[in-house]
Amino acid sequence: MLATPVLQARGDARGSPIAAVVLTGAEVDQTAGLLSLRERQAFTIFATAETHRALAENPIFQVLAADVVTRKTIAPGERFLLPGGVGAELFRVPGKVALYLEGENPTTDAETGANVGVELDYGAKRIAYVPGAAAVTAPMRERLARADVVFFDGTLFHDDEMIASGTGGKTGRRMGHMPLDGEDGTLAALGRLPGRRVLTHINNTNPVLIEGSAERRQAEAAGFEIAEDGMEIVL
Amino acid sequence: MLATPVLQARGDARGSPIAAVVLTGAEVDQTAGLLSLRERQAFTIFATAETHRALAENPIFQVLAADVVTRKTIAPGERFLLPGGVGAELFRVPGKVALYLEGENPTTDAETGANVGVELDYGAKRIAYVPGAAAVTAPMRERLARADVVFFDGTLFHDDEMIASGTGGKTGRRMGHMPLDGEDGTLAALGRLPGRRVLTHINNTNPVLIEGSAERRQAEAAGFEIAEDGMEIVL
Question: What ipTM was reported for this prediction?
Fold first, then answer.
């Protein structure tokens, strides 16, 4: 969930500076925050048809009153404008449907509208935001290469990290997340991009969270930063 | 949502001291927190059939894996045991179904399993927790009178407070919440109970939140306390 503020103070008791929310998928990480924005704050949700369908199938999201909160369906590749004049475009990223929509054997690297990234532009500046990716395709890499800043999926360092630590039974790839490490990992795939690269959506088992760890040094040596709460980026 | 801890430290990376959750309804206030307890933490959800049905109708709650999170249906009036040996009983409270389940003209003071209170007992001590109430019935009053501490719906002070402040179009009663003020308000209804009375579920328009306000003094003079974050009650 990417919330974009309007450049305007709201002083009333129920005011919110959030004018738009862009969803890159229907996973709990992306959508549960919507339930804190209710009940009658006007804003627009931009998302693909797949993500809007997942919301519609959950009556609880009806707390976002239809006459107040607008739901706009955006096709991947279609540029749209956010309040404040920021341009945006969604793009397909190999990945998985949300956990609660999985069948028996979900495809974990499908390129559909269920899992997308978002590219923001304002003047000549560009930001790409990709919180979940099973792989980096050639068109994705081209898009990321033109961004001044890329926020990218940093879920796990090692694909089997959760199994090894006893915190889960799934590999990162099973969850639709490529690991940072390895020949086909994120550090290798995005190591030579020209812009800043910031790892986000980091799982609490990932040793890049530990300052001074070997893995943190490896990520930093490859040119990656680690996102943190309250981080500010000036372009 | 009332989360009850086990008396045991959990030191692992995904540990949680929460062994049970008791839901008094399916409103977002009660249920959205469940989405922060995922994904594979073992605990039990105790709730009425009505509340469990509302959860089941929202696929997003399937993130609480069925083989890990147990959902137990409890009928109002049936005593059950929480982990740690605390006794509990749900009881019907006049109120409303969750906002997202409302039809055109919802009944706002129905006594069904959709809106309940919970009474906890441990040894000779009793706590009652009623975050939403449209009225205090005679059986409810009897039950509340035997509690050492009552946590009670403090949503609005004046029934038309949200309309008057421009924050909403509904009265408290339309939302299934009796006001604190007035002849049939909460201060009058529970003014003579022997135990401690703590107002909870307080809306941000309610002037009892302001220390020193006339309404705060009125509530305090009637013997009520105002709940706050981190509040601890010793029995």
Answer: 0.90
Q: For A83-130, what is each residue's pLDDT tens digit?
A: 999 999 999 999 999 999 998 889 999 999 999 999 999 999 999 999
Q: Rounded distance, CA A14 to CA A4, Å?
A: 17
Burial class (CB in 10 A: 0-12, 13-18, 19+), B177: buried
Collect all residues with Cβ–Cβ distance below 8 Å to B230 and sequence separation of at least 6.
none
> Are residues A58 and B62, on separate chains, in Cβ contact within 8 Å?
no
Which sign does the torsion angle of CA A146, A85, A63, B19 carry? positive
- Please write down the HEC assignment for all residues of B87-140: EEEEEECCECCCHHHCCCCCCCCECCCCCEEEEEEECCEEEEEECCCCCCCHHH
**Contact by Cβ (8 Å): B152, B190:** yes
Please tell me which residue of chain B has the smallest CA distance to A61.
B100
Tell me the sheet residues that pair with B121: B87, B126
Instruction: Give chain A positions within 8 Å (CB) of B54.
Output: 59
Give B167 to chain A, closest Cα distance, Å: 6
Q: How many CA atoms lie within 13 Å of A231's alpha carbon, on the beta-carbon side?
A: 10
pLDDT over threshold 60, residue A9: no
Nearest CA-CA distance, residue A41 and chain B, Å: 10
Average pLDDT, chain B: 93
- What does the alpha-carbon distance between residue A92 and residue A116 come to, in Å, rounded to a whole number? 4
Is A167 in contact with B59 (Cβ distance < 8 A)? no
Can you give the pLDDT at residue A40?
A: 76
Q: Do B100 and A62 touch (CB under 8 A)?
A: yes
Neighbour-count burial for A141-169, b at 16+ CB within 10 Å, e otherwise: eebbeebebbbbbbbbbbbebbbebebbe
* Bridge partners, B21 (sequence order): B3, B45
Which residues does B178 contact at the CB level (< 8 Å), separation at least 6? B133, B134, B135, B136, B153, B172, B184, B185, B186, B189
Q: How far apart are CA A21 and CA A44, in angstroms?
A: 6
The pLDDT of residue A41 is: 83
Query: pLDDT tens, B40-85?
Result: 789 999 999 999 999 999 999 999 989 999 999 999 999 999 999 9
pTM: 0.91
